[in-house]
User: What shape does this take?
Amino acid sequence: MIISYRILLTVFLITASAGLFAQWSIDAESGLAFQDYNEVRIPNEGGTDFNFNGDFELQGPVVPFRVRVGYTFGEKNHVFGLYAPLTLRYEGPAPFDINFENSFFPEGTSIDGLYRFNSYRLTYRRDVLLTDAWTLGIGFTAKIRDARVQLATQGLRDRSDDFGFVPLLHFYAAYHTDSWRVYIEGDALAGGPGRAIDIFTGARYSLGRGVDLKGGYRILEGGADVEQVYNFTLVNFAVVGVFWEF
Assistant: This one.
C-alpha cells in the first residue's frame, strides 16, 4: 500500500515540475441509493445468516455523497483522489434468533442495524486511446476500506469492524461531442475470497467554462467470505452531480 502511494506521488511531482499540460478537476455527486441485498454471517462459522434488506427495514431515503479531485498531466495521464462515504441504517424485530460476533439477539428483539462502508481511493489512469470522439483509459486504484457491521438493542451492542487495503483495476471508456460525453468508468477486481465492484455509467452535458452536469447509474457490489466474516452487499444508485475542470 505504501509503495503504491509513493509511486503515484512520485509520478505526480515529476510531471508537475516538468511544466507539461496540467489541469485540475472536481467531480461531486449525490442522488439516491437503493439496497438490493446485504447478506451477513459474522462469525463465518457459528454466526447466523441474515439479510439486512428483507429481514429488517432500511431507514431512508439514503442520500449518498462522494467527491473526487483529479489532476491531469501530459494530456493522457490522470491521478484521482476519491472520498466516498456510505452508511445504511436498519430497524425492526429480529425475525429469528441471531448469533452475531460475541452476542445473542433473541427472536422478536427490536434491532437497530448499521452498515458502514467508507471508501478512500487513489487512482492512476493512462488514456491508451484519445481521439476527437473517443477516449479509452486503463489504470489501477489503491483503495482503503473502512467498514462496520453493527447490531444494537437498548441493552446490548456488538459490531464487526474491517479496515484495510484493496488493490483494484480501473477502466474508462467515453464517446464525446462538443457538448455531450457518454461514458462508463469503474474500479473492479474479483478473485479469491472476495470481490469489489464500483461502476458508473451515464453522461455529462457541458454548460461551458469547464462545468458539466452529470447523471447516470452506479452499482456498488462486493464483499468477502473469509475466516471471520461473510458479508456481500449490492447497492444501486441513481446519480446526479457536477463536474468542474479548471
